[in-house]
Design brief:
The longest helix has 23 residues. Helices cover 45% and strands 13% of the residues. The protein is α+β, with helices and mostly antiparallel strands.
Length: 286
């Protein structure tokens, strides 16, 4: 009898109460979440993030709005550190030392030597026939690769215009330089023997050597593969002989044009040395 009476009793709570209770529960959870965010321990978060970065090798990306830290002799727009190869076609640097101002000079010179070694192999392969026939010589000195082109067959005596027969050789030299990128700078220098010259166009061997170097630069930059601002012209006349001018063979060896592919600029090397000295001095401070 009691069970039948309960079934007939109306529900004392209206239908919207359950919906209202659910809404209040969600709002309470939402504000609790907001409160937990406002109480975030930033220092603890940074320590955790730093540990994860070191553990998984995540590279640090400097935002555009943030100024670069210190001076980097490889790429000034990135955070300081040693550049490592990445899977994507982008230059990034990895470091866990935010106080590091620049690359170590030893690392920088090592990178230059590795570039020189790779480029020298490419040049030797591309110019193998010219080297074998004695038209071009390749040598390496400190931070540069030198391509020596003998004057015989390149210029007529007392003239600075390139002879047509030697154009194919210079064409292959240009293609080889374009493939390697030409280092950081290309210095083209002209050299003569010690026999004086005085013509209507050239007052001395100084003018002749500089004009011959300029003719080679004009040809190398003709197709736009190597930018003109990448070059420097030098004329040395007979001041830097490679052999004795007392013999015809020695004079022929001294008449030449040298193309020096330079790696690393002098101002960057000087800046790196000064920065390394400053870092060493800071390390000696108590």
């Amino acid at each position: 009898m009691e069970e039948s009476n309960c079934k007939k009793c109306p529900d004392p709570s209206p239908g919207w109460v359950m919906t209202f209770a659910d809404l209040m529960s969600l709002l309470l959870a939402f504000f609790v979440l907001l409160f937990s965010f406002s109480e975030l321990d930033k220092q603890k978060y940074k320590r955790i993030a730093g540990s994860m970065r070191e553990a998984f090798g995540i590279q640090k990306v400097v935002r555009v709005k943030e100024p670069p830290k210190g001076v980097n002799i490889i790429a000034r727009e990135f955070s300081p550190g040693r550049p490592d190869p990445t899977l994507i076609n982008a230059v990034r640097q990895f470091t866990i030392d935010d106080l590091r101002k620049n690359l170590r000079i030893q690392d920088y010179l090592k990178l230059l030597k590795e570039r020189m070694k790779r480029d020298k192999i490419v040049l030797q392969k591309k110019l193998a026939r010219e080297i074998r026939e004695g038209e071009v010589e390749i040598d390496a000195e400190e931070r540069k690769i030198i391509l020596r082109i003998r004057e015989q067959g390149v210029f007529e005596s007392g003239r600075a215009e390139l002879m047509p027969a030697f154009i194919p050789v210079l064409q292959r030299v240009r293609e080889a330089l374009e493939e390697t990128g030409g280092g950081d700078m290309i210095v083209v220098s002209g050299h003569t023997d010690d026999r004086p010259i005085a013509t209507g166009r050239f007052r001395s061997n100084w003018d002749l050597s500089a004009a011959r170097a300029a003719s080679v630069v004009h040809f190398l930059t003709a197709d736009g593969g190597l930018p003109p601002e990448h070059f420097r012209i030098e004329g040395y006349a007979d001041t830097r002989p490679r052999a004795d001018n007392a013999t015809p063979e020695g004079r022929a060896k001294n008449r030449r044009v040298e193309i020096a592919v330079v790696y690393g600029r002098d101002e960057e090397i000087t800046r790196a040395l000064l920065a390394s000295a400053e870092s060493a001095a800071d390390g000696d401070k108590p």
